[in-house]
């Protein structure tokens, strides 16, 4: 049985026991990972993906690819030359199993690219910060109040339209408050 999986922007046709060099994944040597983006299993072609199918693999090692040389030379007098080399970060994996269904119940960690892992971890705390407190109004509905100004107002203790309507724009010390915001907040607080 074979499968076609997608990782790192590339597609690979794999069978059980194959060893692959793929774009760097956020996994250590010896870990079991699972590729959930399966495009084809045996002769079953999916719409974008085959539902419930996955390919499980074991990480063998984190390696670097062969060096590629980039050489640039400009013609004529006083020309310049530049030589640069690059070695791509790769992950060596051995395909252990191809699942046609039940991939979500396997309990194996999904394969995530190395550049995606820090972004996903940083996105979770950011989502918690962005959520307004219970009973708070969305201050960004006021013209001129963006996310940054709404955060400053929340830090100053203003979370509702009624609280903003009660503020004196000239004498308020907590954050910069415009008179137009106060007028709009009075309308919205009704």
Our count of helices gives 4
Give the uncertain stretches in residue-range form.
126-131
Strand content: 35-45%
The major beta sheet can be summarized as: 5 strands, mixed
The amount of helix comes to: 10-25%
How would you classify the helix and strand content by structural class?
Answer: alpha+beta
User: SSE order in H/E notation?
Assistant: EEEEEEEEEHHHH
Rounded mean pLDDT is 83
Shape: flat
> Termini, distance in Å?
66 Å
Query: Which sequence of strands runs across the widest sheet?
Result: 3-8-7-4-9
GO biological process, one term: translation
Protein name: Large ribosomal subunit protein bL21
Function: This protein binds to 23S rRNA in the presence of protein L20.
Pfam family, one: HHH_5
Task: Please characterize this protein's 3D structure.
The chain has 190 residues and is of the alpha+beta class. The chain has 2 domains: 2-74 and 82-114, no CATH class; 139-189, no CATH class. Helices cover 21% and strands 36% of the residues. It contains 4 helices and 9 strands; from the N terminus they run βββββββββαααα. The longest helix has 15 residues, at 116-130. The termini are far apart. Belongs to the bacterial ribosomal protein bL21 family. Keywords: Ribonucleoprotein, Ribosomal protein, RNA-binding, rRNA-binding. This protein binds to 23S rRNA in the presence of protein L20. Pfam families: HHH_5 (PF14520), Ribosomal_L21p (PF00829).
Per-chain topology:
Elements: E1 2-7, E2 10-15, E3 19-23, E4 32-35, E5 38-41, E6 44-45, E7 54-73, E8 81-99, E9 109-110, H1 116-130, H2 147-155, H3 161-165, H4 179-189
Parallel strand pairs: 4-9
Antiparallel strand pairs: 1-2, 1-5, 3-8, 4-7, 5-6, 7-8
Keywords: Ribonucleoprotein, Ribosomal protein, RNA-binding, rRNA-binding
GO molecular function: rRNA binding; structural constituent of ribosome
Pfam families: HHH_5, Ribosomal_L21p
């Amino acid at each position: 049985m074979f499968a076609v999986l997608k990782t790192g922007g590339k597609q690979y046709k794999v069978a059980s026991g194959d060893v692959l060099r793929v774009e760097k994944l956020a996994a250590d040597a010896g870990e079991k990972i699972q590729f959930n983006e399966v495009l084809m299993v045996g002769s079953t072609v999916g719409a974008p993906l085959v539902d419930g199918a996955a390919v499980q693999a074991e990480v063998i090692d984190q390696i670097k690819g062969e060096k590629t040389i980039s050489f640039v030379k400009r013609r004529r007098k006083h020309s310049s030359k530049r030589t640069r080399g690059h070695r791509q970060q790769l992950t060596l994996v051995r395909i252990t199993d191809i699942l046609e269904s039940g991939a979500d119940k396997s309990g194996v960690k999904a394969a995530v690219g190395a550049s995606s892992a820090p972004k996903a971890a940083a996105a979770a705390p950011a989502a918690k910060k962005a959520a307004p407190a219970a009973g708070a109004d969305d201050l960004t509905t006021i013209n001129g109040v963006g996310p940054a100004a709404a955060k400053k107002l929340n830090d100053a203790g203003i979370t509702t339209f009624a609280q903003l309507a009660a503020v004196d724009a000239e004498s308020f010390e907590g954050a910069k408050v415009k008179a137009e915001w106060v007028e709009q907040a009075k309308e919205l607080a009704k």
